[in-house]
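Supplementary notes for students who missed Thursday's class. We covered one full example, reproduced here. Read the sequence, then the structure, then the short commentary at the end.
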Amino acid sequence: MLRIVCTYFSFVICLGVFGWLPHGTNSSLVDSFPRRNTGVTPSWTPPPSGWIKINCDATLNDVGCSIACVARNDKADIVRWEARRIDLYSPLVAEALAVDMAIKMAVQANWRYICLMSDFKIVIEALQNRNSDSPWSISSILDNCKLNVCNFAAYSFVFSPRAANFLAHNLAKWCLHSCTSSQVFLSIPSSVISDTEEWFV
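Structure (token representation):
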């Protein structure tokens, strides 16, 4: 049985504001909590203690495409990341593959509590089962994602506005301009690591 690691109050906040759900929980529970429009620009925030938050993104231009994901813990430390170039020109498929890469990374790392975020709403809503008519071009990718999340004790898929997804966005852009499909980088340039500013070549 999943142990609740936070107090009742913080658990309600987790469910109502961020959308973290134990495995198998009906996502409609989240919709029952009131949400306020504060007028404040969204920004990245750490997950609860014991959780890992993974932001994903993809970027394309006229010469290629890259996908990236970056995982951080409750102290905002980067604990793992991946970025690679892929040979396709579909934003939808690229964004779905970024999520798939993030889930596989989390499985390999043996993490148990995962919040996965992307700024591509179609993919997130399909994974939340809110969009039953997801495009056929990503159906097999999403099926694979849903199969792999069974490895987690609890997980959630959350839509993240670009303003709260800058690091993954920057990492994907940097990879597209700096990597080949076979390159492996052991560190991220400091100019890429930002939650508030976009990286430029």
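Commentary. Helices lie at 8-18, 28-31, 91-108, 121-127, 139-148, 166-178. The first strand starts at residue 21 and ends at 22. If anything here is unclear, bring it to office hours.
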